[in-house]
Amino acid sequence: MGPRLTAHGLRSGVPAGWDVRIECRAESAVMAPGEANPMGGFVHPTLHAASSPLPADRGDYGSGYVEQMGPRNVFVCLAEFDHEAGDTAMFADGIPRQLSASDFHPDAQQRVIAGQCGSQRFFAVDGRAFCLYVVLGSWVQRALQVQQVNQFLQTIDVVDR
Q1: d(Cα 136, Cα 106) in Å, to the nearest integer?
Q2: Residues in contact with 118: Cβ distance below 8 Å, sequence separation at least 6, in sequence order
Q3: Is 86 helix (H, G, I), strand (E, B) or coil?
Q4: Which of 4, 8, 59, 61 gives 30 a disulfide partner, CB atoms 3.0 to 4.6 angstroms apart?
C-alpha cells in the first residue's frame, strides 16, 4: 500500500496516486451554494482520501472536490462525531471493511451529481463515532471502483490520540 499517514487518532495507507489527508479544523471554508454560511464543519478529525488531487478548500463531505471528480475517481470521507453518539443504536460496532456495488446509489450523495453514486455507513470504534461517506465517480463503473475503495478501507485504523 505504500506510506502510512497518522494524525488526530486516525491512521490510513496512502495508495499510489491518491491524495489522503487527515485534518481537524474548526469550520469548513467552502460556502454553501447561494448561502452566506459554510457547508459545515466541526472540530473533530476528518479523513479525506481521493484517487486524484484534493483541493485545499473543500467541505467535510467533499464539497469542492466531488463536483470536479471524473468518472474514474473515488472519494472517501471518514468524519468523526461527538463521543456521545458512539453509544447510540445508529452506530454499528467496527469499521466497515467491505462495501459492495449494491451499497451505492445515485441518490445517496450529499448533493446528487449526475453519473455519480454514493454510500454512507455509521459506525463506532472504542466509543468514537464516525460516518464513512464514499462517492464513486461513475454509477456505471461502480463494481470496479468499489474494489479500490475496499482496498483502501483495509488500511484505516482508529488509534490512540
Answers
A1: 9
A2: 104, 105, 106, 108, 109, 110, 133, 134, 135, 136
A3: helix
A4: 59
How confident is the model at residue 121, as a pLDDT? 94
Give the domain ranges of the chain.
4-158
Strand, coil or helix: 58: coil
86 band by pLDDT with thresholds 50, 70 and 90: low
Cα of 63 vs its chain's centroid, Å: 11
CA distance 38 to 47: 19
Question: Between 34 and 76, where is the model more confident?
Answer: 76
Residue corresponding to grid cell 462495501: 99
Do 104 and 139 touch, CB atoms closer than 8 A? yes
> Global pTM?
0.86
Q: Which residue has the higher pLDDT, 42 or 27?
A: 27
Confirm if 110 and 79 have CB atoms less than 8 A apart: no
Average pLDDT of span 119-126? 93
Answer for the pair 22, 158: CB distance below 8 angstroms, yes or no.
no
> Helix count (H) and strand count (E) of the chain?
1, 9
